[in-house]
Specification:
single chain; alpha+beta; 4 helices
Length: 127
């Protein structure tokens, strides 16, 4: 049986009205230093989004979610943050901010399969 790997995860959230502190879970971000991996999976739930707001630009929010994927992959279209090392990218994406896209505080865990853990957390917390 494989050794459990330490990882951290954070939930990506759409916060339509920051002052109300209501949010829609929109993705999972996983970082594991020992495994040297940074993973992300996002989902834009249009029905929930429309229930919460008509003020935010839907396309812009979707682009902002997409930036998490670009940064995680280290894609050149992810800008200067995508060029940083994995830990720095994770810390930048999970930094506390007051914007319409936020993340939860990172939570630790152990996994023998990070891809399966990503899918499980996504199913439990996002979909």
């Amino acid at each position: 049986m494989p050794e459990p790997i330490l990882y951290e995860y954070s939930v990506i959230r759409i916060v339509p009205k920051v002052e109300r502190e209501e949010f829609i879970n929109a993705g999972i971000l996983i970082y594991s230093k020992p495994a040297k991996r940074l993973l992300v999976k996002t989902y834009f739930n249009a029905d929930k989004f429309n229930l919460y707001t008509t003020e935010l630009d839907r396309k812009q929010v979707q682009l902002n979610l997409k930036s998490f994927e670009l940064i995680t992959r280290g894609d050149k279209d992810g800008g200067p943050i995508a060029k940083m090392d994995l830990a720095s990218r994770f810390r930048w994406m999970t930094a506390v901010r007051s914007s319409c896209i936020q993340t939860s505080r990172p939570h630790p865990g152990f996994s023998t399969n990070l891809d399966q853990t990503l899918e499980r957390l996504f199913k439990e917390l996002v979909r």
